[in-house]
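Re-running CDP-alcohol phosphatidyltransferase to confirm reproducibility after the cluster update. Everything else is unchanged from the original entry.
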Amino acid sequence: MSKLSPDHKFLDFSDYGRSMAKLIVSNLINTKVTPIQLTLAFGVSGLLAVYCIFKGYFILAGVFLILKSILDAADGELARQKNTPSYVGRYLDSIFDILLNLILLLLIGHLSQSPLWLTLLAFICVQMQGTLYNYYYVILRNISVDGDQTSKVFEQKTPKAFEGEKQSTVNTMFLIFQVLYSFFDRTIQILDNNAHRSKNYPNWFMSLVSIYGLGFQLLIIAIFLAFGKMTLIIPFFIGYTILLPFMILVRKALK
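Result of re-run:
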């Protein structure tokens, strides 16, 4: 089951782990392994990457970052294959992403002796980039498949729990999600407040925006680490944000 119809599929540079994720899922579909267990596994992979950076095992850290991206794709893939959508899983996935990004960049900033304010600015830039990609991608998913079940363009109220979930748990996860993401979501929505009214998201444009996806961001970090260029990571992601207003202007021109 695809998140996009054939007409809307595009070359997603952030989703390079999809083929491996599908292979993993094909071996788990008839087991008791749950999507949330895969979400926990990618959280562990992210923490192992952080540990390896701390210890100076930079190539191995890159491997764990890429593995995190693969498992990040696999949890949603397994949920779709088993037809077990989950708001708990959806919010846990996003919570892990933003916390791991913060821990990762704080460690990189510390080891590269970057000022704390510069490291936090890089974190904000990374989140703004990822939010722009997610904003357009979720709009496209809602256009493409008659409404995505767990990801909404505007997430402003607590959703009703799916069967098998506790509403109290969904409420708690949604609150945490809002605290962590509302600033970034609202900022991007203000910058392009009419994006949800457009149905024109050509494949080439989505491929362009996908370079801001988390998977591609982690791949960039892995490459910098592998080549011993950790000191460039913080300034790179700050400078990388220069493309954000350009992408928004292109989207608006498409109408």
